[in-house]
Write a structure and sequence with these properties.
The protein has 20 helices and 35 strands. With about 750 residues, it is an alpha/beta fold. It folds into five domains: about 110 residues, Jelly Rolls (Sandwich); about 150 residues, Jelly Rolls, CATH 2.60.120; about 50 residues, no CATH class; about 200 residues, Glycogen Phosphorylase B (Rossmann fold, 3-Layer(aba) Sandwich); about 180 residues, Glycogen Phosphorylase B (Rossmann fold, 3-Layer(aba) Sandwich). It has an eight-stranded mixed beta sheet, with helices on both faces. Strands 9, 10, 12, 13, 14, 15 and 17 form a seven-stranded antiparallel beta sheet that branches. Strand 3 and strand 4 form a beta hairpin. The longest helix is centred in the last third of the chain and has 23 residues. The N and C termini lie far apart (about 90 Å).
Amino acid sequence: MSSDNKIISQLEMEANGQSSISVNLNSSHSGERVSKGMVLDVKFFDLDGKEIKENLFNFSTSQKFLNYRYVFTGNIAKPHSEMISILPPKSTKRIIMTLTQWAFLSNPKGKIEALDGGQNILVDLAVRPFEILSSINQFWSYSFCCKLANIHKKVGRIALLLVRYFDKSNALLSPVSKEHLTWSSKYNAYSKYISSGSGELSIVYEHLLYPPENVEFVEIKLIEWNQSGAQFECTTPKENSLQWGHSNKTGLLNESMITDLFHTISSEKRIELASHVSIKQHYELLYDHHIQSGDLHSALSVAKSEYEERPSKRTLHRIEFVSQLIRSLDVNWLPTLSSSRGIEIVPDPNKILHLFKVTYPFESTGGSIRNLNIVESQKNIGINPIVVTPLNYPRMFGITDFNLEEKIRGVRHLRIDSGDVNFQSASYICNNLQLNTQLLAGVIRKEQPAILHAASGYKGYELASMAKVLSDHFSIPWIYEVRSFHEHTWTKDAFYANNSWHTKERISKENSLMMHAHHVVTISQSMKEALIDRGISSDKISIVPNAVDVNMFSPMPKNKKLLKKLNLLGKKILGYISNISKREGHDVLIKSLPHILEKHPDTMVLIVGDGPEKGNLQSLVNDLKLEQKVIFTGKVDHSEIQDYYRIIDLFVVPRKRDYASDLVTPLKPYEAMALEIPLIVSDRKALIEIIGEERGYSFKTEDAENLSQVVSYCLENLDECRIRAKAARKWLVENRTWELNAKIYDRLYKNVVKEFDDVSS
């Protein structure tokens, strides 16, 4: 630093490997009109004390100073405080920051202070955001405050709030929780528009940002929206100033914590929110958050704390519910039967007892249709299959008009029902499994099957847990059929589905049960590979793929009556038949349509089915002004579904990135292939396994533009599409029929019984 410059303040500090250093600049002057009266100069030195000549991206450079920044000195009435971030070069050991007089002010004052509390304030001059990067504690909830002044006359949205979470390695976690903000793929963060009228001051606050278990930092950022002319002034985070209202590891709360939660601090005054949330509501928020994030132990702690403070049946129910769910996930917990073997059974070598979670006609899902076809095809080749459904099925859906025993397509279906008396107590999972197992034991004593065949579903481990206990009790083998990895399906949040305690425990439970099963069946090569990766021996796994009744699903002319009814005569129809969920990717198909219409204006989209995303899809259609181009049929019974298939020109399966999408081969594409409908699928591993190289077409997952290109190609090359469609049906006839599957099961059952008898003897 040149000696002709007056040094006002200087700070020397160790870098200590920090990626960013935040400092606070306090400045003022005695009355002159000069606003920028000082300059901050920053120098970096390596371990040997040698200066590192590398300029900062958010600092200016000159011949005199390598890294400098003008310091705003405020005015007479109001001193100025500013926080800046310095990003030192990687080899930096020591940093010297010097605040020096720039203009000839009579009495410039300034001070450089290193921020404590681990709070980093970052400034990116490219977009001029306000950004907080704060080290956090997973047992705290967070609130913050900022003030925004809209100096533009016409713009209402003046800023965009962004929230992101990072782990210990500074890796971005996205998305990680169900915040009250919307996830933005564009910014890779949770986002919220901040609005204010012209010239108005808007005070913005967010509270109850619950950090997930593996989060180390939270980033809160405000950026200008479309150069709207917003002015930002935000709270200065000091030690713990971001932390308002918390729950400790036991979830314990008190009145002062609740009050604090709904307050925040600005640089000038304390701002109290107009509305308060009650302690009961806060307990509700905490409990729901922990349930949604898969932190069941924290959810239990919150429920117990609330019960101690204000006992209620609702809270007691929650304690029991979560307690039993945690217990059921323990790999060492199983339902029990009496220690005695009971009566000796003489297994009928031809009788197979199927434990199915769902059955037709109460449900018309892929799982129920597979169940129906499995047992019907087994019956057709001489096997004696018996289906047993779970406790209180279908009473759990409010259905009371059902028979305890009935034949469906010639196969006996048995219902285990506890009646209304024990229904409530059996709603807890451990109670349910315990009672279900006891009642199943009575069925086995009566039917005396040679094998128990349990299919995965819902939680996955329920039927397998019972099958394992019953197998040990009656000395008969059991098979576990894994059709999907249901341990990931308890939440729609991708992060928690893959990383939470809940998921990890369910995987451990499922793996343990597969290890104990005498054989494991799965539905695709990709799923078999996934099971091998989880430690299951390849020799123990057989593939029995999804299939189709090629006699029932055979090519026929279009149903002109249905076309006329739906006003689709003369149109090119892109169709998808499935449950309407986020995983299925209907939105990608809809977003591709505007591009398709540019070349093929007579194209329509037909969405057959129902589900939780239907409303969002209809809103998307309205936003894109496609109301006349997209038809929603709602739920269609499986007995009528072929008529809808047969009016579709291109069957599109736009499944998104999802654990199940990569592994599970759905039934619907098979049905379309059997009808010789050209098939387009997203390039997920399981779907590519279906179409091979010459049985269909693929597009880049979640890429609407690429899908539009593939659709346009197919519409312009329909002869080629029809050739591939014929090849697809031929492949199905030769490789994917229920009759072929029944023969696989027959061989498998005989081998399992033989191996079991050999070991037992």
